[in-house]
Amino acid sequence: MADNIDTRFSHLRSHTPQNTKNNFAPDQQSVDLEPLTESESAGKRGFSRRSFLSGLGAAGVLAGAAPLANAAPVLEPASQEQAETGGTGNVTLRINGKDFTLRNLDPRATLLDTLRERIHLTGTKKGCDHGQCGACTVHVNGRRVNSCLSFSVMHEGDEITTIEGVGQPGNLHAMQAAFVEHDGYQCGYCTSGQIMSAVALLKEPIGPSDEDIKHAMAGNICRCGAYTNIVAAVRQVRSRA
Ligand code: FES
Ligand code: FES
Q1: pLDDT at 109
Q2: What distance in Å separates the CA atoms of residue 225 and residue 232, rounded to the nearest whole number?
Q3: Which of 37, 123, 150, 237 is least enclosed by beta carbons within 10 angstroms?
Q4: Could you report the per-residue pLDDT of 205-240, keeping only the tens digit for each?
Q5: What is the mean pLDDT of the chain?
Q6: Quick check: 150 pLDDT over 90?
Q7: Atom number, ligand 2, closest to the C-alpha of residue 60
Q8: Could you please report the per-residue DSSP string of the chain?
Q9: pLDDT of res. 96
Q10: Which pTM was predicted?
Q11: Ligand closest to the CA atom of residue 17
Q12: What is the mean pLDDT of residues 37-50?
């Protein structure tokens, strides 16, 4: 079994972040990732691949959708390391309509790491950490930004929106609902970034065709290859906007 899996995935080994192509681009080939059969996945762990993935997928669409209304502003003591490396003093970030004050924030901290590690908004995912996959996409003043490429200290006074601020269980954004309806995810790891880009492009001056959607979504890579369903979800929401 191990040999078979090695053989099956060997063509993906060259897909480092530096050379990965985004399959949204119309002129690029899709990754031919064969799905495992149900019996291959079920096995000794006692659960099926499908049940495992459906759980992850839903988690991606609703990523980190724990209610934020009661989230308390974060005030954490500076660590010794931060003190030694020159923390910035208090920085207040406005995220999903709520202010979070961070004490002695490391000036080198990316917005992605601050969201995930300091504020515990883990719906925003870290994929490549190099600006190449789009998994970390958030909105800053309504525009999509790769949060792994942006320093937190630069965003005091900005309106930052994460996937947790887009919709909540029972009150999904139309794009979240469309991703569920069209199965726009497989593992779900890229999904929150895909949804953040898809929501932003609703207000961007792009053309009406599927090719326009693919071009606008070209910064978001899905290694599972759920592109067809993602485009269907975006198309549906655009047609109703
Ligand atoms: S984590 Fe890949 S673009 Fe930011
Ligand atoms: S659903 Fe798995 S990477 Fe996109």
Answers
A1: 96
A2: 13
A3: 37
A4: 999 999 999 999 999 999 999 999 999 999 999 998
A5: 78
A6: yes
A7: 1
A8: -HHHHHHHHGGGTT--TTTPPPTTSTTSPPP--PPPPHHHHHGGGTS-HHHHHHHHHHHHHTTT----TTPPPP--PPPHHHHHTT--S-EEEEETTEEEEETT--TT-BHHHIIIIIS--TTS--SSSSSSS-TTEEEETTEEEEGGGSBGGGGTT-EEE-GGGT-BTTB--HHHHHHHHTT--SS-TTHHHHHHHHHHHTTS---SSHHHHHHHTTT---TT--HHHHHHHHHHHHHH-
A9: 98
A10: 0.70
A11: 1
A12: 43
C-alpha dist (Å) from residue 4 to 1, 8, 45, 97: 5, 6, 19, 49
Pocket residue to mutate for ligand 1, from 22, 114, 122, 128, most atoms within 8 A of Cβ? 128
Q: Per-residue pLDDT tens for 12-42?
A: 343 333 334 455 654 443 333 344 444 444 4
Cα(43)–Cα(118) distance, integer angstroms: 38
Q: Is 223 in the pocket of ligand 2 (CB under 6 A)?
A: yes
> Closest ligand to 63 CA?
2
Which residue would you say has higher pLDDT here, 47 or 103?
Answer: 103
CA distance 30 to 211: 15
Residue 136 CA: which ligand is closest?
Answer: 1
User: pLDDT tier at 201 (50, 70, 90 boundaries)?
Assistant: very high
- Ligand 1 atom with the shortest distance to the CA of 127: 1
